[in-house]
Structure prediction request, 176 residues.
Amino acid sequence: MQGIKYGMRPKIHANELANSGGIQVGVKYNSLSVDHLEHTGSEEIECLLGSETMPTFLPGAAFFLNMVYGPARQMIDAGLPVALASDYIPGSSPSGNMQFILSMGCVNYRMTCEESINATTLNTAYAMGVSQTHGSIAKGKVANFYITKPIPTIEFMPYSFGSNKVEQVFLNGKKV
Prediction:
C-alpha cells in the first residue's frame, strides 16, 4: 500500500472469480472503488455500508465471460450507490460501448433507468476520483456530454440497446 503514503487511494479488483475478501480489504484501506463483485454476499454488502468505497460492476466482462451477475439490486436496496463501467479490455471485455452497459444495468442488474444512468455517470466519476469535475452537468464542471437522436422517453436509452442513439458528442464544451 505504498501509494497511500503518497496520497493515492487504491482501487481494488475484488470478487470476480470467487468471494476473495477483496471488498473488505478495499473498505479497510478506503479504496475509491472495489470492482467486478460477481461473487458478493450479504457480509460484503454490510461491510460497504457507511464506507466511502464505491461498489463497481463491470457488466461487459460478466457478459463476455458468461459469468454470474453481481448483486447490484441488493446493494441498491440496502442503501448503497453502485457504479457501472465497461472494463474495456481485450480478452475479457472487448467493448467500451457505454450504451450497452447502461442497458445491462437495467436488464441484467434489475436497475431502474435512473439508477443505471447515475451508475454510468456520477457514480462512475466518483469511482475514478473525478466527481468534483466530471460525471454530471453542473456549473464549474467539465462539459463532457452527448446529445441523443430524438427518443420518446428516457427509458428508450436502455430499451433500444442495439442502436446508436448518440447524435453529437461534446468534450470540454466543444463538439467532436
